């Protein structure tokens, strides 16, 4: 079981958090802070597993994380999950984000956290891995996106126009701040199909 | 400029969306909280509007704020509103918000049940998907119970996207509503072989999660998983299955043997590290399970260790970490093969990565021996000094203690060394593990008698230097060791060289800053020391020293009498009075030493921590019985009489004396006050009192200011390193001596065998430095051995420990929504007053087994009495899912009534066949899965009607059983007997039957007479056919006819062909390519006395009229000498009732339906009905597929729906023996026919 999935940046600001067990908002923030504390002080080239069991659940739990440019992707899992498998899942997740956002960067996640949730929902459901095949995930996400667009139809047009207007004034339109090493592959690990 | 104006006005027109909110927060970095609070106010305004788009937008923003840590539970109701929007876009926003912030305590959750149900059955797969995803996050026991059936239906959805989600969410449903596991499990199992890999993987996922917690219940799935493992190419699925096998092998070593070969093949062939790693892990698990029986797996161990070494040496830190992790598992059973890699592991201790160091530490635990313990611990002590982080250092500390104390101090040869290690560890700053060190000190001092002298000396030094430990507030954790030190010094004070000095150290004013429980020990042990001092000076008349001691105590103890801690205060005042009395006696020159010593006489023995719990309850003592008459009413609920003996923690006993009632305390205090008032030595509390106490005897205590950042060598403490050297020397000496001796021996006994241990010294050669007597912990006489001490009663998975091989009983049904859930009780529950699964949940261990047997018996009895179980076939399930679960829980007639033993023996068979050649495996796999179908007795994949069944179950079984022992044959016989009995009931179709749970027919008053829907189709001397017709609400033009064929003859019946003469309106569905008049082959053969069920699908056009179809069954009767061709004609009667489907209906919907005016009425009067009203309702429900909407006294409203969507409503009233039924339906002729049929039903009885 996956207990929680957290994305935060190099400063510990949460970009997405998904807990599969209930905690109060305060505890959630504390967990994010402590996880960030644990993860951020680790060097780049040491192992991606951490026994952080004190935070969530018992000693059975592990933190498995990956660090991409400005973002940390942390999965808290119990012993029923394969460590290397989860590492690969993170990779699939990030690659999927990359495809869905076209060159994903931190700002995409900041402004479209709902979309990130929707993508994640196609991969992990209630703490269990639902789908690991990237093209299948993308197909479902896109189909739902299409549905949303068709529903918006004419009614959505003014709203889109408004947001276009709003964006005109924005000096920092979120694009093209690439996550440099996003294409890093797990060594010796063929992606799961 | 113009643009800005336009933008401003539009801004006012359109609310902020999520992006605006995020942008705003980013632009208000300095006053973020203020900005957000204005945003929340805006959101509150938006939520008040009626426009759902605005609301959805607001909820979307709230979801973001929730992530930032803001409590948004106040908007829960609005979230539910957004969830129920008909637009997917908003619905998704609502469900996302709900999944982020709803939990079991959210009260609006109960409002969502119907909305979720609606979404689950939405024609749009993404509506369903979103609902499932959301539900997976916030499912509660209530939701799980109410929706289990709907989700179960979705497991057979046509879209794999929905199927996989439905399968996955079942795990959550099981967790919240364990009763659903048994009814749902057959279908879950079926999904293991789903054509879609995603669904398959989801099913594997769920079963693996379930099996991880209660592996023994899933052993029977091993053959199926084995097949999957050898056929699947999906690494995720493989990893899960292999992990599952890792959990199963400890329970069934033979499984391990079977696994070794394919796993080693995988290890050699796979390129995926993750898979390789899991394979190695499972091989290790297998080896562990085999370790007792089969020593010949050294090749596999070597392979594993060798692969792991490669992982550990890899430059990838992840692989290194995992390698060490797996290595530690091998260590447990095969320490020898790991110990050869000690170099590698010690090397990992120096790794820069903390995770890796921790793993290496774990490994060290198993690598120590008497020989290298000191050396390894020395290395660890070095690390302790170097370690920066407190967590890692604490980890090191616990590891050192673990390593040394493992298996009852097995590896410690020199306890002086160990004590000094412990003392050195007290120098750690800010560790949390003071109590751990303390308990080790106590343990060693109590249990190793020889070491007491040394330990006491060390502890005295510790006490003397106590200020070093307590000086810094950060070091508070470590002061726990003073607790141990004080106690040891007091208890074993006879070993103290200078008890006076220690006593003085224990009564320093600074002690008052220690935590209360430590002070208490100080005070108590000061008294013990006092006794020792007195005894020392015994005999010396007018001993100055003894009197000085008393004076010291009298001077210092008042400080403790003042303590805020009750325990300290009480002990101190007690002892103070005692000492005063003694002082008086001393002044009179009375010998007191002996009497004072007697206060503390006797030895304390170590007692095992669980000893109290294991005291057996004496015969005739009922702990639950009331000692006095129970007090009335609510009071009794607060008390827990059971807990008094079993659960109380040892700590409570200490504080028990404080539980004296208030009056007594007040009285004592009064007495004490008077005593104090008259006591010249008692100094009343005043602001300057501290100084007054300090005055005597404090000046000569040296107070040294020490820089605590530098780890200190406590003066006078021996360093553990010295011991290492000493030990080495000692061993050298011993070795030399031994050699001498051996040489002598050799000289004496020349020509005799040489001893093998002349090389490096072996374990046994190392003799401990002290003659050590390790006292074992005491246990009460005839303590009860029990293993379940450590089980957590609150583990949610405990409830899921359910025997899945047991055939489904009446009680194992999913509840279906009804208006009044209280009438939902199943018959089994009714009779026994409690439901089976709930009962099992409560029991533990052996009891559970007994219970299961009981259950089984009970279900047997039930069956004998009334039930006629049949098998639900896949076909039916797909076409008619709700129905299938509700009431038509059926079982293949040929299956034995109780077959868990058969199930187990099938597994035995699968396991016992040593590595089978592929062809043979082909045979066993299907047969065992076929057996699984028989035994699990519920929806399992059944072959298509026209495809001949591969093996006749009876046949395979008897052939299998030949291989087995006599005992099992006996079982088989019994089983057959039962089977006959069972069939006997089937002869009389009306004797067996079943109740529809859903209809709530059962009430407390009386049990229902058994009922059956099966009616006779045709019968001759060879065969008897009974049939039942059911509609299918997913397909409005199809009905399923289930026919049970029963062989009444002594001959074998085969080649049965079923044919019906189609009418214009109704046609038998034939396989593609078959002609309109071709007959269908019945997919089984019947041995003598056996019956089986087949299903035939008919398509119908109009359902308003009943009709009859003529048909023929042809078959071959084969006896020993001859075979004849026989034929039997029959008439299939399609009643209008058979087109009705039990559909629950809520009373409000029902009322609307009646108000709508679309329905036409009709009525019926029945005279002379002599049965209880609830029986009457039950009959209507059961025979005519109605459900009760509402019942008030002797009046009930009922509802049903035809397969083509006609509503049929009944109002049934009874008075005396007259029953009047007012009915309404949108199709009058259908209604008329249904009423006629109801009339017929009641005229029969």
List keywords for this structure.
heterodimer; A: 193 residues; alpha+beta; Beta-Lactamase; 5-stranded antiparallel β-sheet; two-stranded antiparallel sheet; disordered C terminus; B: 1245 residues; 6-stranded antiparallel β-sheet; 52 helices; 15 strands; 9% strand
Please explain how this structure is put together.
The complex is a heterodimer of chains A (193) and B (1245). Chain A starts with a strand and ends in a 25-residue tail after the last helix. Chain A is an alpha+beta fold and 193 residues long. The longest helix of chain A is centred in the last third of the chain and has 35 residues. Chain A has one domain: Beta-Lactamase (2-Layer Sandwich). In chain A, the strands form two sheets. A five-stranded antiparallel sheet of chain A has the order 2-1-5-4-3, with helices on both faces. A two-stranded antiparallel sheet of chain A has the order 6-7. Chain A has five helices and seven strands. Chain A is globular. By secondary structure, chain B is an alpha+beta fold. In chain B, a hairpin with a 4-residue loop joins strand 13 and strand 14. In chain B, helix 12 packs parallel to helix 14, helix 30 runs parallel beside helix 32 and helix 46 packs antiparallel against helix 47. Chain B is elongated and about 125 Å long. At the A-B interface, strand 2, helix 1, strand 3, helix 2 and helix 4 of A face helix 1, helix 2, helix 4, helix 6 and helix 8 of B. Chain A: Pfam families: Clat_adaptor_s. Chain A: Belongs to the adaptor complexes small subunit family. Chain A: One of its GO terms (cellular component) is AP-3 adaptor complex. Chain A: It is found in: Cytoplasmic vesicle membrane; Golgi apparatus.
């Amino acid at each position: 079981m996956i207990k929680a999935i957290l994305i935060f940046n190099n400063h510990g600001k949460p970009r997405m958090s998904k807990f599969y067990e209930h905690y109060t908002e305060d505890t959630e923030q504390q967990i994010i802070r402590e996880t960030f504390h644990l993860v951020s002080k680790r060097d780049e080239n040491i192992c991606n597993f951490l026994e952080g069991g004190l935070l969530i659940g018992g000693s059975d739990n592990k933190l498995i994380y990956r660090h991409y440019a400005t973002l940390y992707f942390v999965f808290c899992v119990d012993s029923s999950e394969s460590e290397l498998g989860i590492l690969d899942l993170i990779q699939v997740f990030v690659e999927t984000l990359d495809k869905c956002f076209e060159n994903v960067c931190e700002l995409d996640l900041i402004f479209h956290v709902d979309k990130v949730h929707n993508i994640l929902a196609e991969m992990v459901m209630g703490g269990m891995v639902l789908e690991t095949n990237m093209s299948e995930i993308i197909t479902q996400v896109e189909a739902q996106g299409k549905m949303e667009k068709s529903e918006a139809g004419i009614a959505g047009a003014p709203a889109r126009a408004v947001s276009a207007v709003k964006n005109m004034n924005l000096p920092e339109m979120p694009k093209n701040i690439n996550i440099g090493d996003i294409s890093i592959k797990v060594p010796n690990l063929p992606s799961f199909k | 400029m113009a643009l800005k104006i336009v933008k401003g006005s539009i801004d006012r027109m359109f609310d902020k969306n999520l992006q605006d909110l995020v942008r705003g927060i980013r632009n208000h970095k300095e006053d973020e909280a203020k900005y957000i609070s204005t945003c929340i106010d805006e959101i509150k305004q938006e939520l008040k509007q009626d426009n759902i788009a605005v609301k959805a937008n607001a909820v979307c923003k709230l979801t973001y704020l929730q992530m930032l840590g803001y409590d948004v539970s106040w908007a829960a109701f609005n979230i539910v509103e957004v969830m129920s929007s008909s637009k997917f876009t908003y619905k998704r926003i609502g469900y996302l918000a709900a999944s982020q912030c709803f939990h079991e305590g959210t009260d609006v959750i109960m409002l969502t049940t119907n909305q979720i149900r609606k979404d689950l059955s939405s024609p749009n797969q993404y509506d369903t998907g979103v609902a499932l995803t959301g539900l997976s996050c916030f499912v509660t026991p209530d939701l799980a119970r109410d929706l289990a059936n709907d989700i179960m239906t979705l497991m057979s959805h046509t879209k794999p996207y929905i199927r996989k989600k439905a399968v996955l969410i079942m795990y959550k449903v099981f967790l919240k509503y364990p009763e659903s596991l048994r009814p749902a499990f057959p279908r879950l199992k079926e999904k293991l072989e789903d054509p879609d890999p995603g669904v398959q993987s989801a099913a594997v996922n769920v079963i693996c999660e379930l099996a991880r917690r209660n592996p023994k219940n899933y052993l029977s799935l091993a053959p199926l998983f084995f097949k999957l493992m050898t056929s699947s190419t999906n690494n995720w699925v493989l990893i899960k299955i292999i992990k599952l096998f890792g959990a199963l092998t400890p329970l069934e070593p033979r499984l391990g043997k079977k696994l070794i070969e394919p796993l080693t093949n995988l290890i050699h062939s796979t390129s995926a590290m993750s898979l390789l790693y899991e394979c190695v892990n499972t091989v290790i698990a297998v080896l562990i399970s085999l370790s007792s029986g089969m020593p010949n797996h050294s090749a596999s161990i070597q392979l594993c260790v060798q692969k792991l070494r490669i992982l550990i040496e890899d430059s990838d830190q992840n692989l290194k970490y995992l390698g060490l992790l797996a290595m530690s598992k091998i260590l447990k059973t095969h320490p020898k093969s790991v110990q050869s890699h000690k170099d590698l592991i010690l090397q990992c201790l120096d790794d820069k990565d903390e995770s890796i160091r921790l793993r290496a530490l774990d490994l060290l635990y198993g690598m120590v021996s008497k020989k290298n313990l000191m050396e390894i611990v020395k290395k660890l002590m070095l690390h302790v000094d170097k370690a920066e982080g407190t967590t890692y250092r604490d980890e090191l500390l616990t590891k050192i203690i673990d390593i040394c104390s493992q298996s009852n101090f097995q590896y410690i040869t020199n306890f002086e060394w160990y004590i000094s290690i412990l003392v050195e560890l007290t120098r750690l700053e800010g560790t949390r593990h003071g109590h751990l060190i303390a308990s080790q000190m106590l343990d060693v001092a109590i249990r190793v008698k020889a070491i007491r002298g040394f330990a006491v000396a060390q502890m005295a030094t510790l006490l003397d230097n106590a200020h070093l430990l307590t000086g810094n507030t950060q070091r508070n954790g470590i002061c726990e060791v003073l607790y141990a030190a004080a106690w040891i010094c007091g208890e074993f004070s006879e070993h103290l060289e200078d008890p006076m000095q220690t006593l003085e150290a224990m009564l320093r004013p600074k002690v008052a800053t220690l935590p209360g429980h430590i002070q208490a020990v100080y005070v108590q042990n000061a008294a013990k020391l006092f006794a020792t001092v007195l005894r020392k000076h015994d005999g010396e008349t007018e001993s100055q020293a003894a009197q000085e001691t008393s004076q010291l105590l009298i001077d210092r103890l008042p400080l403790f009498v003042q303590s805020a801690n009750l325990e300290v205060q009480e002990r101190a005042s007690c002892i103070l009075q005692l000492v005063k009395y003694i002082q008086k006696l001393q002044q009179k020159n009375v010998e007191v030493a002996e009497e004072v010593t007697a206060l503390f006489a006797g030895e304390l023995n170590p007692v095992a921590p669980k000893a109290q719990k294991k005291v057996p309850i004496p015969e005739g003592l009922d702990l639950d019985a009331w000692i006095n008459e129970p007090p009335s009413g609510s009071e009794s609920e607060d008390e827990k009489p059971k807990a008094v003996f079993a659960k109380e923690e040892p700590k409570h006993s200490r504080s028990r004396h404080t539980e004296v009632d208030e009056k007594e305390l007040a009285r004592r205090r009064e007495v004490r006050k008077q005593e104090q008032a008259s006591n010249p030595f008692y100094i009343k509390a005043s602001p300057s009192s501290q100084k007054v106490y300090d005055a005597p005897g404090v000046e000569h205590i040296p107070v040294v200011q020490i820089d605590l950042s530098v780890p200190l060598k406590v003066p006078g403490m021996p360093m553990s390193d010295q011991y290492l050297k000493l030990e080495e020397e000692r061993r050298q000496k011993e070795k030399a001596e031994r050699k001498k001796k051996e040489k002598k021996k050799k000289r004496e006994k020349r020509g005799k065998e040489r001893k093998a241990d002349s090389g490096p010294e072996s374990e046994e050669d190392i003799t401990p430095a002290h003659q050590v007597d390790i006292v074992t912990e005491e246990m009460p006489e005839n303590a009860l051995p029990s293993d379940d001490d450590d089980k957590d009663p609150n583990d949610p998975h405990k409830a899921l420990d359910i025997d899945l091989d047991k055939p489904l009983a009446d009680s194992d049904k999913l509840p279906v929504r009804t208006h009044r859930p209280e009438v939902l009780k199943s018959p089994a529950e009714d009779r026994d007053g409690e439901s089976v699964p709930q009962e099992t949940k409560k029991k533990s261990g052996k009891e559970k087994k007994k219970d299961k047997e009981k259950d089984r018996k009970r279900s047997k009895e039930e069956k004998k009495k009334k039930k006629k179980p049949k098998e639900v076939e896949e076909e039916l399930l797909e076409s008619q899912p709700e129905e299938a679960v509700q009431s038509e829980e059926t079982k293949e007639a040929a299956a034995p009534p109780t077959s868990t033993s058969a199930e187990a023996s099938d597994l035995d068979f699968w396991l016992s066949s040593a590595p089978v050649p592929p062809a043979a495996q082909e045979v066993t796999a299907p047969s065992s899965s076929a057996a699984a179908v028989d035994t699990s007795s519920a929806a399992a994949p059944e072959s298509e009607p026209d495809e001949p069944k591969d093996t006749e179950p009876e046949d395979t079984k008897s052939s299998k059983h030949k291989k087995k022992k006599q005992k099992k044959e006996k079982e088989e016989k019994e089983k057959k007997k039962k089977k006959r009995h069972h069939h006997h009931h089937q002869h009389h179709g009306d004797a067996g039957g079943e109740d529809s749970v859903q209809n709530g027919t059962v009430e407390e008053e009386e049990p229902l007479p058994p009922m059956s829907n099966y009616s006779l189709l045709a019968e001759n001397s060879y065969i008897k056919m009974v049939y039942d017709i059911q509609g299918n609400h997913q397909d409005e033009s199809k009905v399923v006819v289930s026919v049970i064929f029963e062989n009444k003859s002594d001959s074998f019946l085969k080649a049965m062909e079923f044919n019906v003469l189609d009418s214009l309106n109704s046609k038998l569905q034939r396989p593609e390519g078959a002609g309109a008049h071709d007959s269908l082959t019945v997919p089984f053969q019947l041995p003598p006395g056996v019956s089986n069920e087949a299903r035939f699908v008919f398509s119908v056009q109009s359902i308003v009229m009943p009709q009859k179809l003529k048909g023929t069954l042809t078959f071959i009767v084969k006896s020993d000498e001859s075979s004849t061709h026989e034929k039997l004609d029959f008439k299939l009667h399609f009643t209008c009732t058979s087109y009705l489907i039990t559909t629950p209906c809520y009373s409000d919907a029902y009322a609307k339906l009646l108000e709508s005016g679309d329905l036409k009425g009709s009525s019926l009067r029945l005279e002379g009905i002599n049965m209880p009203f609830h029986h009457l309702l039950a009959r209507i429900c059961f025979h005519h597929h109605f459900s009760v909407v509402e019942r008030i006294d002797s009046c009930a409203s009922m509802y049903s729906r035809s397969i083509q969507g006609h509503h049929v409503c009944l109002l049934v009233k009874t008075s005396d023996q007259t029953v009047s039924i007012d009915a309404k339906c949108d199709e009058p002729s259908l209604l008329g026919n249904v009423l006629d049929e109801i009339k017929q039903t009641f005229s029969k009885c």
